[in-house]
């Protein structure tokens, strides 16, 4: 059974940090690019960061460049999103996404809530 399970979300103060983890199972993790999306209330789901395999090239939304870092560990079938200097506008549900060579080969996690508030 294919599964993506996010963890690490929670409540953090502005300027703080969180590290999200995505644990994958049921497919060949190294053959998939990994992405983090987020969706805030009243907004569309947006791509936050992406990382390829095996070279691990990365891309980021302009809103998070310099603050967020995506990484992966193929040996552990895990992806991560390190979030620093968090802002209230980062508040959203964050989703882990795995994409194969075909855009039709994609899996989603259930999401984890990140709330940035004082």
Q: From the alpha-carbon coordinates, what is the Rg to the nearest angstrom?
A: 14 Å
Strand tally is 11
Largest sheet: 7 strands, mixed
How much of the polypeptide forms β-strand, as a percent range? over 45%
Derived structural class? mainly beta
Can you put this structure into words, describing what you see?
The chain is mostly beta strands and 118 residues long. Helices cover 0% and strands 51% of the residues. The protein has strands at 3-7, 10-12, 18-25, 33-39, 46-51, 58-60, 68-73, 78-83, 92-99, 106-108, 112-116. Strands 2, 4, 5, 6, 9, 10 and 11 form a 7-stranded mixed β-sheet that branches. A hairpin with a 6-residue loop joins strand 9 (92-99) and strand 10 (106-108). It is globular. The model has no long low-confidence stretch (mean pLDDT 97).
Summarize the topology:
Blueprint: E1 3-7, E2 10-12, E3 18-25, E4 33-39, E5 46-51, E6 58-60, E7 68-73, E8 78-83, E9 92-99, E10 106-108, E11 112-116
Parallel strand pairs: 2-11
Antiparallel strand pairs: 1-3, 3-8, 4-5, 4-9, 5-6, 7-8, 9-10, 9-11
Descriptive keywords:
single chain; 118 residues; mainly beta; seven-stranded mixed beta sheet; four-stranded antiparallel beta sheet; 51% strand; globular
What is the gist of this entry?
With 118 residues, the chain is mainly beta. It has strands spanning 3-7, 10-12, 18-25, 33-39, 46-51, 58-60, 68-73, 78-83, 92-99, 106-108, 112-116. A hairpin with a 6-residue loop joins strand 5 (46-51) and strand 6.
């Amino acid at each position: 059974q294919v599964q993506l399970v996010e963890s690490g979300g929670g409540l953090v103060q502005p300027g703080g940090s969180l590290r999200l983890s995505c644990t994958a199972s049921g497919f060949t993790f190294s053959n998939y690019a990994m992405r983090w999306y987020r969706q805030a209330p009243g907004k569309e789901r947006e791509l936050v960061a992406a990382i390829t395999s095996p070279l691990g090239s990365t891309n980021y939304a302009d809103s998070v460049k310099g603050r967020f870092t995506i990484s992966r560990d193929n040996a552990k079938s895990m992806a991560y999103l390190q979030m620093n200097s968090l802002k209230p506008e980062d508040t959203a549900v964050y989703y882990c996404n795995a994409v194969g060579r075909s855009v039709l080969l994609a899996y989603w996690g259930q999401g984890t809530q990140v709330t940035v508030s004082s």
